[in-house]
Specification:
Layout lengths: L1 E2 L3 H9 L3 E4 L11 E2 L5 E2 L4 H12 L3 E5 L5 H9 L4 E3 L5 H12 L6 E4 L6 H6 L2 E4 L5 H6 L2 E2 L8 H12 L3 H5 L4
Parallel strand pairs: 2-5, 2-7, 5-6, 7-8, 8-9
Antiparallel strand pairs: 1-9, 3-4
Helix pairs in contact: 1-7, 2-7
Length: 179
């Protein structure tokens, strides 16, 4: 992971995270959109990311999705992962974040966010801990607190999940059932 702030500051920020919010296209997916002749949308999700999300949730850290697009497929993926915070079709992601905080009692100081493109910048600047993926747009890389080694849709979310769990001293307990 590449840090844009001091590693000790990054760890301190990660210790306070109670909610990890994720963008979808370019973060949970590789950012490609596959459309069939019938208009059906197809997305590919990485199972490593899904396992990381489950580890976070099982450790008491909530996970949510904040997407500018709307997709039935995404709703099904969120349901399969037990994600109850699903915000779709919101191009003004900062406004959606403020509404989420008001409705669910979160503060920006307890949230980490992973984004990769221009619509994510205002959220990344507002939350306690902003991550981006290695294949993100350069403007996002410039303002994120940290950048994953992995690309969006290829395990980058798992990298973030593991980092948060390790920073909070929860990683060993989270993976213990699998050993």
């Amino acid at each position: 992971m590449l840090f844009n702030i001091e590693p000790s500051d990054l760890l301190e920020r990660a210790r306070a995270v109670r909610l990890l919010l994720l963008d979808v296209d370019g973060v949970l997916t590789a950012g490609e959109l596959f459309l069939s002749d019938s208009g059906e949308e197809i997305k590919a999700f990485n199972t490593l990311d899904g396992q990381g999300i489950k580890l976070l949730r099982n450790s008491g850290i909530e996970v949510g999705i904040l997407s500018g697009r709307t997709s039935k497929l995404l709703a099904r993926r969120a349901e399969n992962l037990g994600i109850s915070i699903l915000i779709q079709g919101r191009e003004d992601k900062r406004e959606a974040l403020d509404e989420l905080c008001a409705q669910r009692g979160f503060t920006a100081d307890s949230i980490a966010y992973v984004g990769d493109d221009l619509p994510d910048i205002r959220v990344l600047k507002h939350v306690r801990l902003g991550f981006t993926v290695c294949n993100a747009h350069c403007s996002v890389k410039a303002i994120a607190h940290a950048q994953t080694d992995g690309a969006g849709g290829a395990g980058a979310v798992r990298e973030v999940c593991d980092f948060i769990l390790q920073a909070q001293g929860l990683y060993d307990d989270a993976i213990a059932p699998y050993q």
